[in-house]
Amino acid sequence: MRRTLAFGAFLLFVQLTFGQSISSPSGRLSLTFFLSPQGIPYYTLRFKGKEVILPSRLGLELKDQPSFLENFTVIRTDTASADETWEPVWGEVRKIRNSYRELRLTLQQRLEQPRTLVLTFRLYDDGLGFRYEFPQQPHLTYFILSDERTEFALTANHTAFWIPGDFDTNEYVYNKTPLSDIDALSAGKSAGEIFTRNPIGKRAVQTPLLMKTTEGLFLVLFEAALVDYPAMCLTLSEREYTFTSTLAPDAVGNKAYLQTPTRTPWRVILVSDRAIEIASSKTILNLNEPCRLNDVSWIKPQKYVGIWWEMHVGRASWSYADTNSVRLTDTDWRQLKPNGRHGATTERTKQYIDFAARHGFDAVLIEGWNVGWEDWFGKWKEEVFDFVTPYPDFDLDAVQKYAAKKGIELIMHHETASAVTNYERRIDEAFRFMKRYGYKTVKTGYVGRIIPRGEWHDGQWMINHYLRVVEKAAQHRILVNSHESVRPTGLHRTYPNWIAAEAARGNEFNAWSRGNPPEHETILPFTRLLGGPMDYTPGIFQIKLDYYHPEKKEQVHTTLAKQLALYVTLYSPLQMAADLPENYERFLDAFQFIKDVAVDWEDSRYLEAEPGDYLTVARKAKGRNEEWFIGAITDENARLITVRLDFLQPERTYTATLYLDAPDAHWEKNPMAYRIEQYLVNYQTALKLSLAPGGGAAVSIRPATAIEEKRLRTY
Known about the structure:
The structure is a single chain. The chain is α+β, with helices and mostly antiparallel strands and about 725 residues long. The protein has two domains: about 280 residues, Beta-galactosidase, Chain A, domain 5 (Distorted Sandwich), CATH 2.70.98.10; about 300 residues, TIM Barrel (Alpha-Beta Barrel). The chain has 14 helices and 36 strands. Helix 6 packs parallel to helix 7 and helix 8 packs parallel to helix 9. It is globular.
């Protein structure tokens, strides 16, 4: 049941009489802030004159102190605006415009010992960011947050793309339902393949939350610049379409320990009547602080292969032996009997290095190189890995020298098994060890329940840990690719060595679970990827997994052509060709696209999209002569799409190589059927691409040579 008409009319009267408003630079969005007669802060948001957020409360509860909920007066109002352009170290575009209008309100709380709270609102043409700020002041220094009461009151029963609220994992399949049908407990119970799943309530969902109204308006609720604070989930009211912020507690139930001056992360509402504007939004990035690293010359996007997928499909193991009771401190690893399936051997690593060098890749990831994998999973023990001791069949010196000779970098894997205090004790030694052996990138992992016990992956303590790792890595000039970590919130602007994260359901789930439905990748750009790039690990060519073991029923829910398209549609400056080298050798003509596609971009164009259904993206490679790449993907339905190449330079001829689903391709029945065609194109060309059920298309475009202009026919 909605708010009563009487109460709504009263709030509207207060809003119009006492409210303070600002509009976005173009006037599309307008924000109004007001205080109720009880001094309770409220805000509303309109898009093109229509309400998208109804009057919504703001406030925070404190432990053992009066809360920041009511009895406020506005003692100062400041407005500001900005219109600037900045360049990211790497990204989807070379330049980003940061244009907004700001309303900054200083509130004083009517108490015996008055306190001050500042609310800052920044309004962009595609969204709103606001946060709580706590200045240094006589009557507030140290304080404990027991809850945040930020509300997002929606106008109707929108369609939502959601995953269960969970402080320990975000590796769920997306659900698409009306708000009224959200049942996170049932959805969480069905996700049996997620070891750490722990849905926090029936009506609780994670951010970013995507919604679509019956009028075709898209809304996203999210946050930006998550620092020293728990990640935000949302809980939906049982009686109204109103979400309230929900934060991870620590072991004694507190949400955050703070000291003035401080501030919360930005609460963000993205709004547009075009899906492609949501996917291309840079508001999250703009709300983060500029780069804090003095020298970024060492930060380079990468394309890599690695010893990884073969373990997921059961071809090899992370562990060296088949015992499940080992201790770091007193195990003689050379006395263990090898199981004969260990993947990260010196010989196998050299094969990957050879493959990477032969095909122009930058780096090789090596998982399972270090001792401890025999007894690492689900034991909730402190001493798991030491991050410096290799297995007996992995020769660090030989591998490092061989890689250097071939011009290949190595990526080290630090799986912590969520024994985070163990990692923090050892991290300085581990990073020095990496530098000694020439490793410039680390893939961190946080599988399992957190130690310190009682903490959560998304709690304040862990948020601070992830950033400590990134800051320490920057001191050693190391790039970080974090897995099972908190979802990104744009901090890669501030720390561009945080080059990628997993933080969602990646390709690996296709190897040993019910997998990711074909629509999954069409949703990610409107949810998880809004906060930063994802190490999704695309490029699986051997899609049916009974190829490895006849009894395996799993498969990747895709076609081969779609796997190519993901390199364009799922942005990341760190892209893995995830399949085994021998599988790529079977399809070298299709593999050419993975070799060619860029990982850093001059420009990106989201051409058409409907979340959950389809997505088409075109990107221009940075620092390469007019090279463009296009990716188009669909859900379980076949589609015919038209891609106009009007972004190309006029009066210039290009060669387009099309990697397409074959006419009989189908993600279940014939997923590896593809065809490759080549044509001359120009800015007037309109490509018609046929996508199979669960399929896709990938296109590479570059200026045509004189020989190609004579040999190829025009599209």
